[in-house]
Design brief:
CATH topology of the largest domain: Vanillyl-alcohol Oxidase, Chain A, domain 3
Structural class: alpha+beta
Strand content: 15-25%
Strand order of the largest sheet: 15-12-14-13-17-18-16
Radius of gyration: 22 Å
Number of domains: 3
Number of helices: 15
CATH class of the largest domain: Alpha Beta
Shape: globular
């Protein structure tokens, strides 16, 4: 870099002897326990610039962090610097033109509420506490995905600090190759994003559905649920399906709810239309098995956001998880495999989550952005967690054996749920887009400053 004078760190700086160090280094996935040399909570873009230049001067590893939700703890590092943008969360809204400028420390739930108060939305994931940076850069699957596409499909421009500590803007007209790469490559590969400009959509009330069954109805429910993700299915509905087994029900696993209304098979859906049409659309599911609890109503969007958030993890915990893509109807052998693993959980609590994709996502070509898996009909997320340390080995083993068992019925893995056990990860995450990503990497980070396990290498 040719720096003669030592750059100075700015922002909120946390060293190992700081009383807040343990809290500052903690990851959402508490399976990982890493000890950075220093953690910098940037207050503005200049703090990020200074942190990158300081790390380059001292030649120490860099990790970038927004919401701490990296499944494999890749946003932390032993002996390096963690550059955390979570305190950069300013949101400016141009309601007249439907544009939102968002700093990358903003959490999903905050963005939903800030925009929702103005009758706007950027589809930004389901989990309330993930940072908008990671969600967007890897794709962004939300409850509005089928009608409106991915979070990254709403990105108009981004601001980034590169490996030399220089600030770049990327869009369709400036650094277009970098803009292409950032839409689907995942976080931390090319630099540190500090701000996004999104196209926002108008939203008011939506149809909301939640239907619950006992585990005996699993097979019939899954067969019917799939039909709502087939090509040609009504794109106004984005459906999910939770299946939970082990120590806790789906609600208690994700939100601490111990109520008697908790059931192990739960469908949720958001519909851009009236509740009467949603009820008609869901008749096949309502006639499947013996539903135990049915909710179909029309609600303000923000009320639906809060209901969905209440079914997501609320506190950090140890877990192992992978999201795999489904490109076709699951055959009976696949459904039998799912049943076999759900019926034989380890000491941990386990959940399988299906999320409907397709629709607007599939109308964008697979090479138009770095997000390759445009044609997937849905994804299946395998999730294992545990309450005591001795639950980790069986929980991890269950997830890995499950993932391998469904390989014949899936193709590819969502880069926002990385798994270091995957051997051919370039193809799994990026498909045919990987080679182009390595060329972009060589152009913007030729010295591979931003590297970590499974990061994109320079060509």
């Amino acid at each position: 870099m040719g720096l003669c004078m030592e750059p100075q760190l700015t922002g909120l700086i946390v060293w190992p002897d700081d009383v807040h160090y343990d809290a500052a280094r903690k990851e959402w996935n508490t399976l990982f326990n890493k000890f950075p040399l220093v953690i910098v909570f940037a207050q503005d873009t200049e703090d990020v610039v200074n942190a990158v230049r300081w790390a380059r001067y001292w030649n120490i590893p860099i990790r970038t962090r927004s919401g701490r939700h990296s499944y494999e703890g890749l946003s932390a590092v032993d002996g390096g610097i963690v550059i955390d943008v979570s305190q950069m969360k300013q949101v400016n809204v141009d309601g007249r033109h439907g544009v939102a400028t968002v700093q990358t420390g903003t959490k999903n739930i905050d963005l939903y509420h800030i925009l929702g108060a103005k009758g706007l939305v950027v589809p930004a994931g389901v989990c309330p506490t993930t940072g908008i940076a990671g969600v967007t850069l890897g794709g962004g699957h939300s409850m509005l995905t089928r009608p409106w596409g991915l979070t990254l499909d709403h990105l108009l421009e981004l601001e980034m600090v590169d490996a030399n500590g220089c600030v770049l803007q990327a869009s369709a007209n400036r650094h277009a190759d970098l803009f292409w790469a950032y839409r689907g490559s995942g976080g931390g590969n090319f630099g540190i994003c500090t701000s996004f400009c999104f196209r926002a959509r108008r939203i008011d009330t939506v149809g909301f559905a939640e239907i619950s069954w006992n585990m005996t109805d699993l097979e019939t429910v899954l067969r019917t649920w799939q039909s709502y993700t087939f090509p040609g299915a009504d794109e106004r509905l984005t459906p999910t399906l939770f299946i939970t087994s082990g120590l806790k029900s789906v609600q208690s696993n994700f939100a601490g709810d111990q109520s008697p209304d908790s059931f192990p098979v739960v469908m949720q859906g958001v519909f851009l239309g009236p509740a009467t049409e949603l009820c008609h659309l869901l008749q096949p599911l309502l006639r499947t098995g013996s539903p135990r609890k049915i909710t179909i109503e029309e609600l303000p969007w923000l009320e639906v956001v809060d209901r969905l958030s209440a079914t997501q993890p609320t506190t950090p915990s140890p877990f192992k998880s992978t999201d795999c893509f489904i490109y076709d109807q699951l055959p009976e052998t696949a459904i039998n495999t799912i049943r076999r693993f759900i019926d034989d959980p380890p000491t941990s609590s386990v959940t399988v989550l299906f999320h409907g994709l397709g629709g607007a996502v599939a109308r964008v070509p697979s090479h138009a952005t770095a997000y390759f898996h445009r044609q997937a009909w849905s994804k299946i997320a395998i999730w294992s967690t545990w309450d005591t340390p001795d639950g980790a080995p069986p929980g991890i083993r269950w997830e890995e054996e499950f993932r391998k068992a469904i390989l014949p019925y899936t193709w590819g893995v969502y880069v926002n749920s990385p798994n270091l056990a995957i051997k051919n990860w370039p193809m799994a995450y990026y498909g045919d887009n990987f080679e182009q990503l390595t060329r972009v990497k060589a152009k913007y980070d030729p010295e591979n400053v931003f590297h970590f396990p499974q990061s994109i290498p320079p060509v």
